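Researcher: Next entry in the queue.
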Amino acid sequence: MLMQKQRELVAEYGRKISAARLSPGTSGNLSIYDPDSGLMAISPSGIGYFAIRPEDVVVTDLDAHIVDGARKPSSEWALHTGFYRRKPEIRAVVHTHSIYCTTFAVLGQPLQAVHYAIAEAGTDTVPCAPYETFGTEALARAAVETCGEGRAVLLGNHGMVACGESMEGAYSLACNLEFVAELQYRACSVGTPNVLSDEQMAKAVERFKTYGQNQPTK
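Model: Structure for this entry, 218 residues:
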């Protein structure tokens, strides 16, 4: 099976985003990109995450031509390929409809530095792209352009996208941003959040570059 390991990871992390309530029902989608082959393994359209098997995951090129798999790829394939084209260092994209991130997307408001964990996105603000119809190239363009140099973006009246150098990294970022969004929501319900300064966030962003374990040498 072509891209077997990547397809297994897409199926596994699909179950994780569903169990973590980051994407209810069949909403959201996720993918892994292999730059050596130029191929992407992406979740299938309209199948519940706990029902997806590795063979249901679809392998396409960046123009959405199916290379392997009998299923229809996610309707948001252009969203994924847009990020792979713009950010050549990333290897995975996770798109969720998590409740707190989506709440701010509905408000058209960015996530702010109410907690240093936002630094995992490589920025001190996660911007919100204007609304575009789901599954369109217009949505993909708006998301990629609004995201800028960071690794995450809110989609107006829709959801959130997180990018990573691995599926584990993209999933971790999606979880952390939902945490930040909930904090921002709760803080705004009580008063005015204390947003970290540019200087404070610059230090946090720098620290995140060396956070975690070093990759083993091959």
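Model: The longest helix spans residues 167-190.
Researcher: Noted, moving on.
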